[in-house]
Amino acid sequence: MNQAPSPSSHFDVVVVGAGFAGLCMLHRLRKMGLRAKAFEAGSGVGGTWFWNRYPGARCDVESMEYSFQFDEELQQEWRWTERYSPQAEILAYLNHVADRFDLRRDIQLNTRVDSAHFDEDASVWNVRSSDGGTHTASYFVMATGCLSSANTPKVPGINSFGGSTYHTGRWPHEGVDFSGLRVGVIGTGSSAIQSIPIIAKEAEQLFVFQRTPNFSVPAANRPLTDEEVERVKSNYGELRKMAGTMGFGFNTRSNEGSAFDVSEEERRAEYEARWKMGGLPFLGAYGDLILDEKANATAADFVREKIRALVDDPAVAEKLTPNSILGCKRLCADSGYFETFNRPNVTLVDIAEAPIEEITPNGLRTGGTTYELDAIVFATGFDAMTGALLAVDIRGRGGVQLRKKWEAGPRTYLGIATAGFPNFFMITGPGSPSVLTNMVPSIEQHVNWIADCMTFLQERGETVIEAETGAEDVWVSHVNEVASATLYPGCNSWYLGANVPGKPRVFMPYLGFPEYVVKADDVAAKGYEGFARG
Ligand code: FAD
Ligand code: NAP
Q1: What is the rounded average pLDDT of the residues 508-525?
Q2: What pLDDT sits at residue 6?
Q3: Ligand 2, residues 60, 385, 499: which to mutate, most atoms within 8 A of Cβ?
Q4: Cα of 24 from ligand 2 centre, angstroms
Q5: Which of 90, 172, 285, 394 is least surrounded by Cβ atoms within 10 Å, i.e. has the fewest?
Q6: Which residues of 391-417 are buried (b: 16+ CB within 10 A; e: fewer)?
Q7: Helix (H, G, I), strand (E, B), or coil: what is residue 403?
């Protein structure tokens, strides 16, 4: 049951968001006996999986790994049905978690947190919510997600459109029936690549407006057999521990060596095997794929050949073939994406040279041609990593706004705290590995770190903790240095903020897992080194 709003109240901790991160944080705080409250803008829990209900939405990290490990009974009892479970199943799981651990009584839905200001005299956060509530909290935790702030480009005429518009990240709960309609999809990232094959089967005509072609490998999704589920469940603890030493989980099988340690035949055989196996482990074929351009080209050329083989019309295949670094934008995993362009009702419109000029009452104009449309789907992604954080008016010491502090790009210590903002934590904030890993274990690691930190302070009778500027500077330099040694900064990805006009270009996630966990544990073991306490 959704709680009645409490217009004015004090909590030990205010948590913003009720996705994987908010739910996990709330549960842990409860176990510590703290008075915690979560505010969630949506009308239900689930975060990403509440909002992204577009056709074909599913995870691309295997479900047996893309799930919580904090409760042995939960992971033993929950039965995932597919290798990559669909959105509805992940949402059902998160609802189950909320019920199972009786979390709902401390979650206020349909409520956005608008501002949080730190009161230096009282050492509390003053939090304002969209229902008019004002709250105070000793700690303020943003569990607002890396990919939750939908990015809809400001195309001229957008409000004049006579048909329906949708964003994949804000999909209507009742679903959308595209039968008999002329549909335009803008974007060719992961969300578009998952939804296009399904929309194409339903719509009368589908136009895909592509600014940049993307690399995608087959997901090879399939139902999970009882045997394989049992194999994992009988050894879950050990497998999870092993996954803690690997970025994307225990089924990723990464090779450390160079692509040039082996012959061309062996390399091709490796790529072929990974293509058949399906999914993101394709990128783990060799240790230097994202470090060395020539090594990367061996894998990229392999995928380019596959695209040419899958798409009948060579001119369309050419347009769909990326000339960029494989993995530099997040690799996509698809179920029949490239083949969809062989359908007679599907047209690829290359807008790389001629951006969308205008949306008109009847459609969309680009390159001087107007495409008549009944519906437009914006698969245009998110203001990633900082969007949801900066949407809240967060002010630290001296009334300094987080927006102001991060004007030239986010600055954090460990992606979890930022100097000048005491008792403020971010779950999977910029500067943490987050989106470059399986996010659920990364979320749990942050939750545990934050909770342990609060316990540490409590045990010592301390009430304030704050990242030191020096430690933050060193961390920010380190995050940049690590990224610069790779091929990641070389393309216009959302990792760099390049998808949002005017956003500072800074590589936001930290490329270092599991080293990050070792570092974070070490900081804690040294009495929260790099933090001032009192
Ligand atoms: P979210 O799930 O984004 O939840 C944040 C919540 O905070 C939202 O519900 C939002 O409404 C709420 N919120 C934000 N601001 C406010 C505010 N001011 N006031 C109140 N509430 C607020 N990651 C993987 O590792 N593997 C995958 O396969 C994978 N697939 C993905 C598929 C899609 C379509 C998308 C978009 C992302 C995917 N991700 C995946 C990343 C995914 O976002 C994370 O795995 C995870 O779900 C994030 O959980 P979270 O709780 O941190 O954030
Ligand atoms: P995205 O990867 O950022 O893709 C957005 C697409 O929209 C890109 O093709 C982009 O083109 C295009 N675009 C943006 N603005 C545009 C404009 N003004 N005009 C024309 N085209 C424009 O977003 P996403 O597909 O929603 O995915 C975001 C992330 O969420 C993924 O990378 C992944 O981490 C996660 N996700 C995962 C899955 C999964 O399989 N589990 C599914 C969906 C999302 P440019 O490339 O030119 O910018």
Answers
A1: 96
A2: 52
A3: 499
A4: 27
A5: 172
A6: bbebbbeeeeebeebbeebbbbbbbbb
A7: helix
